[in-house]
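call fold target=Dolichol-phosphate mannosyltransferase
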Amino acid sequence: MNQPQLSVVVPVFNERDNVAPLVGEILAALRGRLAFEIVCVDDHSRDDSLPVLAALKAQVPELRVLHHAIRSGQSTAVRNGVKAARAPWVATLDGDGQNDPADIPKLLAARDAAAPQVKLLAGWRVERRDSGSKRRASRWANRIRARLLGDDTPDTGCGIKLFERAVFLDLPYFDHMHRYLPALVQRAGWTTLSVPVNHRQRTAGVSKYTNLGRALVGVRDLLGVSWLIARSRRTDVEER
């Protein structure tokens, strides 16, 4: 395979019925556009997601499959996928099929039209296809996050993003960091851009998060990211 220009990282946990259609949609969106690879990271699924991915790998030369020995969470799955990625730019998609791979070319076009300082393009689900309770919880969470972090990002929870691999790997790592990528990238001195994207209803499987669970974890994470931003120090470096 040629050196890829783009790596598509997909964290997967108990998504046996979603991974094959999702991989097919990624191929349809990207084949013929650029050299790419797909890195699916199975987070120690309890169903047969891993055998399904293994069977797909035999048919799809662009597909690579990583497997966690123990369940480690979505942020760890994303980070391990990015570490294994061979391209300088990475797109991420949730494994549940709610993100639309057809939006990846839109993010690539927005990147190409943006200033060089833009290192992360975040999907913005203008029309959410989740339950009413989840949409209300997300609106409140976004308002609180925006007030504390000032990241000027309307939707940090959207799984579809495009970013420079080196910039991502330079960010501080912690569990649930994937929900704060715009603020962390801005903290590092770069610019981010929100791009409206499609959002779809889940057609198979069940959500892995509850509103209460996200709220309890989110408060602690939000305070931690706020502390990181407050303690941030940056300076230009010149070699003499």
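return ok
The radius of gyration is 17 Å. The longest helix spans residues 211-230.
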